[in-house]
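Risk mitigation, structural track. In case the binding assays with 1-O-phosphono-alpha-D-glucopyranose fail to produce interpretable data, a predicted complex structure has been prepared as a fallback.
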Amino acid sequence: MKNIKNIKKCLFPAAGYGTRFLPATKAIPKEMLPILTKPLIQYAVEEAKRAGMDTMAIVTGRGKKAIEDHFDISYELEHQIKGTTKEHYLTDIRSLMDSVTFTYVRQVAMKGLGDAILTGRSLIGDEPFAVVLADDLCISSSHGVLSQMIEVYKKHGKSVVAIETIDPGDTGKYGIIDGTEISPNLYQITDMVEKPSPANAPSDMAIIGRYILTPDIFDILKQTKPGVGGEVQITDALLQLAKKGEVLGLHFDGRRFDCGSIDGFVEATNYFASKL
Ligand code: G1P
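Fallback model:
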């Protein structure tokens, strides 16, 4: 019988440079770019909170101070708007800050997503945890993508990645999986390849930026050699677990906006604007 624990911690790798959004990201972390009035990282933290998590573990890097400031009290601002008609603009962020804890660690060198997750080990410890890449902004008409993934984890006790069918020409942008459908929309993953060319891709099912990981991933990451792009890839580490039948892929119910690309960012902005 597996020891299935509650997932209370969510890791947010947020140390990347955001070069696709230069010059906007010269002095501002890409995670702070807003869709309407809310930065991407806040959407991500809210999704994790809705999924029942209470500790938000953020892996930052140089130039990312704005993220810490965003989730902290700005005394001057609070003082200025207290009692005015503008106070309500801070209601959501205040209640978020009151209900969860933020922890931080700095990734010293940008050695890839796998290395960022390994850097987060000191914040996570020896328990299963979620990972959210804030530039994949997810919405869902039912419950959130992370909540759907936690349900799967609770049932099977295995690592879970969120997957989406993509245009076969785009495989080079994602981790691509192969697997067998074991129940509707749920795959037992048998292979995973980071950013393959369309000719070498095992399928058109891509991993998107949501993971539930069991803590054994940390020791595997420690041994994982740099892969595609000279970076330590979480996909390569997860493949070790997948070979033992320990990784599931969930074709989630919902929609993802790739806010790491200009097109996706504009789509997300238009979508949220249409809901105002
Ligand atoms: C990362 C992962 C990749 C995954 C993608 C989802 O790539 O390495 O496997 O498909 O996130 O957004 P990145 O977008 O950081 O290059």
